[in-house]
Amino acid sequence: MTDLLGKTNTKxxxxxxxxxxxxxxxxxxxxxxxxxxxxxxxxKVKDAENSLLLRTKYGDVVxxxxxxxxxxxxxxxxxxxxxxxxxxxxxxxxxDGFMAQAGCPRGDGxxxxxKKLKAEFNRVPHKRGIVSMARSxxxxxxxxxxxxxxGDCPWLDGQYTVxxxxxxxxxxxxxxxxxxxxxxxxxxxxxxxSISVIxxx
Length: 201
What we know:
Elements: H1 23-26, H2 33-42, E1 51-55, E2 60-65, H3 71-83, E3 93-95, E4 99-102, E5 130-133, E6 146-149, E7 162-168, H4 170-174, E8 194-197
């Protein structure tokens, strides 16, 4: 077969020299500021600094936080998120029609980050998609564990600190593996792949 291009017209393209770049430099390759801004905008949140992207194996869940009603909890959640605390933790307790709970480093509901928070009970009702803090019998015992409501739970109102709401991807929360009786503990539970503050993406 005849070479239509001819050897004199072809050029050898060299590979980009990225071998000696630092990790922080290589992560930025191929992502312009305009592209990053477009990605953030695609989540359609009111405030990217106070919104989270929770990734599951089923899909992405967007949580818009409520610093106006629970400022200290929102600030602490963002600290933990930025430390990577939640990445890989289990949805250890999931009760169909009630809620999905995560945020325990031990994976059994007994652990936390070691920093308890003073309650910020508020008037936001516990309805489908609401994100609230788990705690013990003591009001000021919330730490890192939180739960996402599957349905309306009015008996929780004013008893637990609401700090956010799922605004996108609730269908993926619905897909989480459910636990059994009596307390909803899950065998081989699904995990939080990662959580990020959307303004950091």
